[in-house]
Amino acid sequence: MDSFGEVFAASAPAKVNLHLGVGEARADGYHDLVTVFQAVDQLDDVKLVVEAHTATEGSVVNAIYTNLLMDIEVAEDLDTPSNLAWRAVDAAVNAFWAEHPGAALPRIRIEVTKSIFVAGGMAGGSADAAAALVAANAYLERFGGSALSDDRILEIAKTLGADVPFALMGGNALGTGRGDELVEMLGRGEYWWLFINPGTSISTGKAFALLDDMRHDNPALVPHLDTTAVAQALTSGNPAQLGAALHNDLQPAALKMRPQITRIMALAEAAGGRPIVSGSGPTIAVLCDDEQHAKRAYYAINPHLSEGMDILLAKGPAEGATLL
Ligand code: C5P
């Protein structure tokens, strides 16, 4: 077919939670959250590359290949149909086929280029899903003659994971429910971050479960559901004020699972940054005063990191998933 090799590409940002308040466990296995997200300009790219033949049902995806641009150990095999980018393409195409039964679509392969730490607490998998949805919708418009509506894409995003809607949206947002009921937040200024990964991952589900256990024995670990301080700091545009307002209820669980991140936090503080566990960890997000401070802190911290640890610099807020 003459469309062979045609490419549909999109990128999507990582996130940091400026505030992560975790409420009670719910019957569906999730926890109610009150969280403030900021997207940062550390991006993953997803490409859909058209291959030969067509499909009229099932999956249009022949294969997925991941190119890791960071030096961390990844426990799971990323290149399988369970990859969130693959599942996102399947979900978008199946929603299209529900509206247009029997329509023929060309098969594709997926190429993911990952700059966001894997299972690091930065929603890298969710970014891949969001980018895959945006790319898949361009592919559907080209070969199916009509794209899915924004509302339909958002609905699909929610089924793929609690952080996927925010990866579509970007910016600064208040998240409630599972973290997927989003309202854009007013914010001024730009914020310079270092992200330091200890070379390991944490399963999000395990971090939430450990927090539940720890709360059993320690009544001091109450849910922090008030985001006023972060909201005020964001409207001030003052990084020092935001640094003082950062809060993460999951931090004690991440510190217990990966004690080595305590040393990373101390290094960040010695360099004048404000460290916080990013999401469910184990990545440490370090808020700096400005670009110059972030670069100085990068070079101050980097020589002290152990083998396998990785550090990167990023700026927020960044835009959500974007067609390239
Ligand atoms: O939605 P996602 O697949 O990213 O969530 C992974 C796991 O994290 C869930 O299965 C659940 O155990 C936990 N989680 C939670 N409450 C949330 C979000 C995630 O308990 N609001």
From TrEMBL:
According to the UniProt record, what class of enzyme is this?
transferase
Instruction: Please verify whether the record's keywords include Transit peptide.
Output: no
| MF terms in GO | 4-(cytidine 5'-diphospho)-2-C-methyl-D-erythritol kinase activity
Please provide the record's keywords in A-Z order.
ATP-binding, Isoprene biosynthesis, Kinase, Nucleotide-binding, Transferase
* Source organism superkingdom: Bacteria
Q: Which Pfam families match?
A: GHMP_kinases_C, GHMP_kinases_N
Q: Which InterPro entries match?
A: GHMP_kinase_C_dom, GHMP_kinase_C_sf, GHMP_kinase_N_dom, IspE, Ribosomal_Su5_D2-typ_SF, Ribsml_uS5_D2-typ_fold_subgr
For this protein, the Enzyme Commission number is 2.7.1.148
- Domain GHMP kinase C-terminal, first and last residues per copy: 231-302
Specify the pathway: Isoprenoid biosynthesis; isopentenyl diphosphate biosynthesis via DXP pathway; isopentenyl diphosphate from 1-deoxy-D-xylulose 5-phosphate: step 3/6
Q: Which residues are named in the active-site annotation?
A: 15, 163
Catalytic function, reaction form: 4-CDP-2-C-methyl-D-erythritol + ATP = 4-CDP-2-C-methyl-D-erythritol 2-phosphate + ADP + H(+)
Residue span, GHMP kinase N-terminal domain: 83-171
The record's annotation in Gene3D superfamilies points to:
3.30.230.10, GHMP kinase, C-terminal domain (3.30.70.890)
Question: What family does this belong to?
Answer: Belongs to the GHMP kinase family. IspE subfamily.
- According to its UniProt entry, what is the function of this protein? Catalyzes the phosphorylation of the position 2 hydroxy group of 4-diphosphocytidyl-2C-methyl-D-erythritol.
**PANTHER family per the UniProt record, alphabetical:** 4-DIPHOSPHOCYTIDYL-2-C-METHYL-D-ERYTHRITOL KINASE, CHLOROPLASTIC (PTHR43527)
Know the name of this protein? 4-diphosphocytidyl-2-C-methyl-D-erythritol kinase
Q: By which gene is this protein encoded?
A: ispE
